[in-house]
Amino acid sequence: MTPVTPQGMEPKDEAMKTTQDQVGIPFRGALGRLGMRELEVACCLACGDDIAAIARHLDLSPASVRAAIRRAVNRLGLADEASLRLLAEMMLGDQRLAA
């Protein structure tokens, strides 16, 4: 799948391009500003996982998952975890429809 990125939202370095390939979704819109761990956690939230499930899935502590959520929320200027979940659901939903 060839990623489609809005102008100015291209990954800034090779590490971010690698992250995009690992996660399997194009860097589009707001999610493109997240780091790899933040993006993984956001994707898990979008799939309906709770903090404990995300921690098990990504082999992290629940505190690390909460920290990644906080960083993502702050980086994107969102209000809370629910806002991050909704944004990620919308972004992933766009990708499912485009596939």
Overall structural class, as computed from helix and strand content, comes to mainly alpha
**Count of strand segments:** 0
Assembly type of the shown chains? single chain
Number of helices in the DSSP assignment: 5
The proportion of strand residues reads: under 5%
CATH topology of the domain at 31-98: Arc Repressor Mutant, subunit A
Q: Specify the helix fraction band.
A: 55-70%
Give the overall silhouette. Answer: globular
CATH superfamily of the domain at 31-98: Winged helix-like DNA-binding domain superfamily/Winged helix DNA-binding domain
For the terminal residues, how far apart are their CA atoms?
8 Å
Going by CATH, the architecture of the domain at 31-98 would be Orthogonal Bundle
Overall pLDDT: 76
CATH uppermost class of the domain at 31-98: Mainly Alpha
- Low-pLDDT residue intervals, each spanning 5 or more residues: 1-20, 22-27
